[in-house]
Design a protein that fits this description.
By secondary structure, the chain is α+β, with helices and mostly antiparallel strands. The chain folds into five domains: about 5-60 and about 120-215, no CATH class; about 75-115, no CATH class; about 220-340, no CATH class; about 350-610; about 625-760, Orthogonal Bundle (Isoleucyl-tRNA Synthetase, Domain 1). About 50% of the residues lie in helices and about 10% in strands. It has a five-stranded antiparallel beta sheet, with helices on one face. It has a four-stranded antiparallel beta sheet with strand order 13-15-16-14, sandwiched between helices. Helix 12 packs across helix 15 (about 450-460) and helix 19 packs antiparallel against helix 20.
Length: about 775
């Protein structure tokens, strides 16, 4: 079967766009081919700084003929109806139609149409111009003479040539010629822009990749990465060093070169007095170079690894010299930042008020920076006040959280007031990625407790699903307070994530809270925290800026979020205490919605750990704000439902809950009261006694937070439930007996509901 080779060659494509662009190109073309009726065996994309390439194997030579039937009018229809049918079906006369019979509708015309398949070359030539013109680059540009015309091609950088060939593996290929903005697809490409600028004629992928290699182009990005990593490691080893690996930098550098040549440079040993993090970021950010260290040591060496895109005639001496010159200059700047951050600020007298507010010691450089951050009224968010105001809020919240985390209150308070101080340091101003890291270093330099310094470094962790979770009580308390303040604040001003948009990374913050609570086994009544903390934002929010009361009516809440309906009704009772629509009324709804947002993040987290979605839903009720207990219930339920006792409990309760749900749909009201005097059969009394015992035992187990024992107590209901349904007709003619029997089944549902909503469990 034929193979397709496609190359789009342009000027430099930004490294961060290459991988996604190649994937987009593969998907767009293969989807278009499949939609047009073609099939293929496999497709792989490649990319370099100057080209996107597709190798699509085993393409069908043409799409299949499409046969369809077009139904027409009855055979006795009027002439106009028949003429309209002929036009729509493309038939010359009614004799070309077929007559079908239907027992109910009688005889009617049907056109049997055949849409011929098309050659693969024709299909590709038809779809490619549109794919290129509408390619989803994050940023693109017009170029050349044609750029002045309406509808001119926009590409990430000027598109220079297109290769598109098609043919079987062992036969001659042909060019699929199509044109885009004056560029005509052909079979000519170009190699390395300096080493091999001459045109290269290609036929299929095998000779294409071979000829590119000879022309100093390594097409496969993964192979370029392997070359860079291996050569860099070997070069470092030869100098008695080891490479400090950096996967992100390796990916970026592989996207900057087509022919990687690894070299080693040096900088002044005196610059090693600068913190390693600053050295590494300076060299990485400015020169895209790797750093090295002595084997087994944490401190860096003064040798760095750079990757060139050319084989220089002098062996790379000038390249190394030029990079070294820039690195040394940048490190000189970094040394300047590092030393200045340890000096006193010149305007200490203006910082006295801020120092008193946060109990700061102006004899210490980091304290000075925190005072400066507050005195300058640096904005955190236009509606949420300044960084100083935010620190004050976090300080209050963190103090409350100490009661549940067990952290030392004084250490937590000190960590909170210094956590944002490094925002005013010159090192963090130059390298924002070092926020927290530099704060820790400066804190240790001025003699802060290790727990305080660690909390400063970790107060924004975890910042993603793979990031570490703080372990020290001081660190996790500060991290919790920081994230919870952010989340409550943005809900207080009604700026929540919508769809895929989350500019303030609120989903990540909530997941961070979930991970801290569950992985460090911290129990927090979130709703109580939300409602206490949201009051601190009242001064930030103007009544005129609040959403209208109609936007958050109970009716709308129930439609937007049915799971919160019961919770919303409870909230409505609280709201009714306030006569006017104001911030306090709005905040009650906002905090309820924030809890639901946490529920969604918890579901994602637990599902990623392998928990079944139905078991999570069975445990998670709208008002449940102790996420650690939810996780423990899910864990216990997961283990229990796969056991024989669990199967017994599930089977025994399913029939009862389903019957109750059916009756409630009819309008029946299930009461709580069961009258033993109305029992007519022994099975009723047996079930009543069993439910009473199981309810008591389960309640005691739940109080001990022993959910497994609670479930085991409830599983004893299986036998009496089976006997009940075998011997008893629930829908008795006597309304009182019928209501009493339904109330007895309601007792079963209430008893199991203390553990989980078994009606939500599949099976």
């Amino acid at each position: 079967m034929p193979d397709l080779l496609l190359e789009l060659r342009s000027e430099e494509i930004p490294a961060g766009m290459q991988r996604k662009a190649a994937g987009d190109l593969r998907k767009l073309l293969t989807d278009a081919m499949v939609e047009a009726g073609l099939t293929y065996e496999g497709a792989r994309e490649y990319w370099t700084p100057r080209r996107l390439t597709l190798d699509i194997r085993g393409v069908t030579a043409r799409s299949a003929d499409v046969r369809e039937e077009k139904k027409g009018p009855r055979t006795d229809a009027n002439e106009k109806a028949i003429e309209g049918f002929l036009r729509a079906a493309g038939l010359a006369s009614i004799s070309e139609a077929h007559v079908h019979s239907d027992p109910k509708k009688g005889d009617f015309y049907v056109a049997h149409l055949v849409k011929p398949g098309r050659a693969a070359e024709e299909i590709v030539a038809d779809v490619m111009p549109g794919i290129i013109r509408n390619f989803p680059w994050p940023r693109s540009m017009r170029s050349g003479v044609a750029s002045t015309r309406p509808g001119a091609l926009r590409w990430v950088r000027p598109l220079q040539s297109i290769v598109c060939t098609f043919g079987p593996e062992n036969e001659e290929t042909q060019v699929i010629a199509f044109e885009v903005d004056g560029l005509v697809a052909g079979n000519v490409t170009y190699g390395h822009r300096f080493h091999a600028p001459e045109p290269i004629t290609v036929r299929r992928f095998a000779d294409y990749i071979e000829k590119l290699e000879k022309a100093k182009v390594v097409l496969d990005a993964e192979r370029r990465k392997e070359i860079i990593a291996a050569d860099a490691g070997n070069l470092a080893f030869a100098s008695g060093l080891e490479l400090v690996e950096d996967a992100g930098l390796l990916e970026e550098v592989a996207g900057l070169v087509e022919w990687p040549v690894v070299l080693m440079g040096t900088f002044d040993e005196g610059d090693l007095s600068i913190p390693s993090e600053i050295i590494r970021l300076t060299i990485k950010t400015n020169q895209k170079c790797f750093v090295t260290r002595r084997p087994g040591e944490e401190t860096l060496s003064n040798h760095f690894i750079l990757v060139s895109n050319i084989e220089a005639k002098d062996g790379g001496k000038e390249i190394v010299h030029g990079n070294g010159k820039v690195v040394r200059a940048r490190l000189s700047d970094a040394r300047h930042f590092w030393t200045r951050d340890q000096r006193d600020l010149p305007d200490l007298e203006t910082l006295r008020a801020s120092a008193e507010k946060f109990d700061l010691d102006l004899a210490k450089p980091l304290d000075q920076r925190m005072a400066k951050l507050d005195a300058l009224n640096v904005t955190f968010h236009a509606k949420l006040g300044t960084e100083g105001e935010r620190v004050s809020r976090i300080r209050t919240l963190a103090a409350d959280l100490c009661a549940v985390t067990g952290a030392d209150l004084k250490l937590v308070d000190r960590a909170v007031v210094l956590a944002k101080a490094d925002l005013r340091t010159e090192a963090v101003g130059e390298f924002p990625e070092l926020q927290g890291i530099m704060g820790r270093k400066y804190a240790l330099l001025q003699g802060e407790d290790d727990a305080v310094a660690t909390a400063i470094a970790e107060h924004r962790k975890p910042q993603g699903p793979t990031d570490v979770v703080p372990t020290d009580p001081v660190s996790l308390t500060v991290a919790l307070a920081d994230k919870l303040d952010t989340l409550v604040g943005f809900w207080a001003i009604d700026e929540k994530p919508t769809g895929s948009k989350d500019p303030f990374a609120l989903r990540r913050a909530a997941l961070g809270v979930v991970r801290i609570l569950l992985e460090r086994k911290v129990r927090v009544d979130l709703l109580q925290v939300f409602r206490q903390h949201v009051a601190q934002f009242e001064a930030c929010v103007k009544v005129a800026d609040l959403p209208s009361e109609a936007t958050y009516s109970m009716e709308k809440i129930s439609k937007i979020n049915p799971d919160l309906l019961a919770f919303a009704l409870e909230t409505e009772k609280l709201i009714s205490e306030h006569s006017a629509w104001n911030f306090r009324r709005f905040s009650l709804i906002a905090t309820a919605d924030l809890l639901f947002f946490f529920h969604e993040r918890l579901k994602v987290y637990l599902r990623d750990l392998g928990a079944r979605h139905d078991l999570i839903d069975a445990v998670l009720i709208p008002a449940n704000d102790d996420l650690l207990m939810v996780a423990r219930r899910v864990e216990a339920l997961t283990a229990f439902v796969t056991s024989q006792e669990g199967l017994n409990l599930l089977a025994g309760t399913k029939r009862a809950t389903q019957l109750l749900a059916a009756e409630e749909k009819k309008g029946a009201v299930i009461t709580d009261a069961v009258d033993p005097a109305l029992f007519a059969l022994p099975a009723e009394g047996e079930l009543y006694a069993a439910v009473s015992t199981a309810t008591s035992d389960a309640a005691e187990a739940v109080a001990r937070e022993d959910f497994r024992s609670a479930m085991e107590a409830l599983s004893t209901l299986r036998a009496p439930i089976d006997r009940f349904f075998a011997d008893v007709l629930v829908n008795d003619e006597n309304p009182a007996i019928r209501a009493n029997r339904l109330a007895l089944l309601g007792r079963i549902r209430a008893a199991t509901g203390t553990v989980a909503d078994f009606s939500r469990i599949a099976g």
